[in-house]
Amino acid sequence: MAAPYARVGEPRTPRPLPDAETLRVRDRRHVWHTWTPLDADRSALTLSHGSGHHVWDIEGRAYLDASALNSTCGYAHPDIVRAIAEQAARLHHADLSVASHEPVGVLAERLAGHAPPGLDKTLFVNSGSEGFDAAVMMAVSHWAHLGRPRPRIVTFARGYQGATLLSRSLSTLPRNRHLLDTPLPVTRVELPDEPRALRHPGALSALLSAFEEAVGHDPDDLPAAVVVEPFLNVGGAVVLPPGFLRGLRALCDATGALLVLDEVFTAYGRSGRMFACQREDVVPDIIVSSKGLTGGYVPLAAVTVHNRVYDTFAADPVIGGLRYGHTTSGHAVACAAALATLDMLEKLRLPERAEELGACLLRRLASLAGAPGVTDVRGLGLIAVVETDSEGRADRILARARDCGLLLRRIGSAVVAVPPLVIDDEGVAAVADGLAEAVAYTAD
Ligand SMILES: Cc1ncc(COP(=O)(O)O)c(C=O)c1O
């Protein structure tokens, strides 16, 4: 089938691949795909290469990639590719528990420059999930070091902080439920079933009251931290009411709980700011970020911490510092990729561009709000969400769009468009047209 929503250009030097069937058979025999039913065949879409906001499959079909959670800077960007190659040729790795290297220092300094004031220290890990394990451990240890233990965490019931045992145990999402009990006491705040209810008058104060109740007033049972995502990705593509983060900051200030923000998805421009908390001028105690940090070129996550939390770690009774890390923490090649990515974000003003392009995309999608099967249209930065009345309908929309050369994501019954931030006006128009066509095609 023709791919009207993909602008077919010349891909950069694609490597010749074995024939499609060989790749598929190998995949089905040996690859265990993440978060996938065993009877699903992910090899049906096998990608070969990408350029800008397009990817090509092994049969040469082009797609506009609006499913790009991580690929904020697009595919095969020569500056990022060069930075990775040069760093790999110079010094690919040093264990940070033994030594340091230039790119990790420069990156940590630049993150401190972009983060809200006081968040001057960064621990690097390899994924958002690990970032949460570290952040939760830091928050609980912080209180232990102060001699006032607080083991409890307050968070969204539908939050998603990751797949490791600790990060997943914060959530009650069915996919995160595990056979093991949570290692920490957690108080979880429910959200309305319909995310659009969060735009009703009174929704903000109801949500903040629920958090206040969850935090409580018992001085012997206050939480170590309140952990939230500024936009709930896996938990239903939920846009939170403006003012929510500011309200949480005030609650944390009143009770001493640390405010830990999950900016794994929202940071580095996706939310329309470098960090989503900057939309409300909020200074968290800890920010965990990942995906856009290297634009998905190399795995890397950052746990960026306020000095007042960092400073308490001198009192750690075992090593007088942080008892956490991986041998690949702050990997030099990943740091070089992140520096090249930050260069692009700054030079091309990608956060501002995401805000403008996202507003344009939502304007174009607004007319879908009354379409058959569509229950809501919402968004934040360059994240556009078209909520439908069922998971089946959302799946059909994704399938039709893909047949027409447009890749989208599904979260529950919501269809989500997250193109690279380097997409152009023409690309945004193609995403809106492709999504509208797929909605109309699948109308009953
Ligand atoms: C908001 C949020 N937090 C945490 C994570 C976990 O990150 P990772 O998949 O890198 O472990 C994700 C992943 O999708 C996420 O969207």
The ordered string of helix (H) and strand (E) elements is HEEEHHEHEHEHEEEHEEEHHHEEHEEEH
Q: Kindly give the count of domains.
A: 2
The unique ligands bound to this protein are: pyridoxal-5'-phosphate
What is the gyration radius calculated from CA atoms?
22 Å
List the strand order in the largest sheet.
4-12-11-10-7-5-6
Task: Predict the CATH topology of the largest domain.
Answer: Aspartate Aminotransferase, domain 2
Level-2 CATH architecture of the largest domain: 3-Layer(aba) Sandwich
Amino- and carboxy-terminal Cα gap:
23 Å
**What is the tally of helical segments?**
12
Give the class from helix and strand content and strand pairing.
Answer: alpha/beta
Helix content: 25-40%
What's the name of the CATH homologous superfamily of the largest domain?
Type I PLP-dependent aspartate aminotransferase-like (Major domain)
The outline comes out as globular
Proportion of strand residues:
15-25%
Pfam family, one: Aminotran_3
Cofactor: pyridoxal 5'-phosphate
Protein name: Aminotransferase class III-fold pyridoxal phosphate-dependent enzyme
Keywords: Aminotransferase, Pyridoxal phosphate, Transferase
